[in-house]
Amino acid sequence: MLLCIVIAFQVLLVHGTTFTSTFSQQVDVLENEPALEGIFHRPPYKNLAPVYEACNVEFAFPSEEERLSALATGKYNPDVPVPIDVDVYFPNEFAEPYIFVTLPRFGSGVPYSLALLTNVQRPNGTELVAFPNYYWHNSHGQDCNGITSVYRIQIDSCNRMWVLDSGEINFVQHCAPQILVLDLPTGKLVHRYRLPADVFRISTSRFVTPFVDIADNPPFGQCKQAFVYMADALGYGLVVYDVQRAKSWRIENKYTIPDPDFGTLTLAGESFELTDGVFGLTVTPHGLGLRRMLFFHSLSNDAQIAVPLDVVNNDTLWHDGVASSIEEFILVGKRGVQCAASAMTSHGFLLCGFMNPIAIVGWNIRTPYASPNRIVWAENPHTLQFVAGLKVRRNPAGKEEVWMLSNRLQKVFGGTINYHEINYRIQRCGVDELLFGRECKP
């Protein structure tokens, strides 16, 4: 059998200089066209620092008996799992980061939906191991106290992982969607919130992205004042969860739905159909002196939308259905093409994985959402096919890094995937290296 040629698992902490350019200098660069041409000159394609490459996903099991049982019962089908999201946790300045991957249960055959990347090399790629452990996942929706299916996660500044469990497998709702909060130093569950029936639509909703905004961050805060925003891609809405009050509410209107003109997604010459609503979520960073906004977009749409956080976080404003606070929603602009996962740097650059060009594109939120202000930070039609997971994280040296997971979703949906070539990648690069077109160093 032809074995996949993979890059060995390599995760080295980046001990470089901190992000030294001030935000005002960056704004000046963006608004000065001659400077823009010089500083943002880039080679045709960008090589990011590889962390993980695989032809197909390799799973660890508690025992060989468990593996064989899962294969025999159809709970494990090697050709079904598709990695979607990545996030990283730095336990200290000396240790390698923990790298987490999600694998939603689009269908039967996914043995577990949340995993930790190991350094064990197998024929098709580096091995994954279930997180927190295998038995959180192995009921396959029969035990709603476990984990059913996870599209995306978020690790906060308080060393906690927020897991958005959609509760469905193969389009069947087995459990109510829920938020699980795991303490990463111990791996223990510290909070659970099951969404009440009035904020999701049974057999329709699909919760694909969480974004957690914490007001009382360390070192002075106690990590208690948190709001979670959840993208319901197929229910065409947003759910807001006030953690302190243990209360949630639903938001939906004309801005949370897809546009049929953007229901065909084309990547590297292959097309597939999706009518996904709200998909990418992020917020204005603290400390910029701006009114803080929730930025969101639908996958099957080209519109970038913003709504003030103080409006979103006020549950009394959302009692009138689709007409609620509609005047507060801002059409920031249209990009003419779809983008997938999004993230925000601390200096206010909103990043998104574009379909055309196949690239990570950055936009300074203090400038108009116009083509000259949407800068290609990294373009590579080979390694960035469908950026499904995108995070900005600060490493122990104080430097911001962009982490991204790409998959060839067009080949998965089209049935053209070839497991003798690289299909799944995790890559990283420093924010300043991306912004100024420098080489990405591991």
TrEMBL record:
This protein's GO CC annotations: extracellular region
Chief place of localization: secreted
Keyword Acetylation: no
Alphabetical list of Pfam families matching this protein: MRJP
Cellular location(s): Secreted
Keywords noted in UniProt: Glycoprotein, Secreted, Signal
InterPro entries xrefs: 6-blade_b-propeller_TolB-like (IPR011042), MRJP/yellow-related (IPR017996)
Keyword Glycoprotein among record annotations: yes
Signal peptide: 1-16
Top-rank taxon: Eukaryota
Record family assignment: Belongs to the major royal jelly protein family.
Designated name of the protein: Bee-milk protein
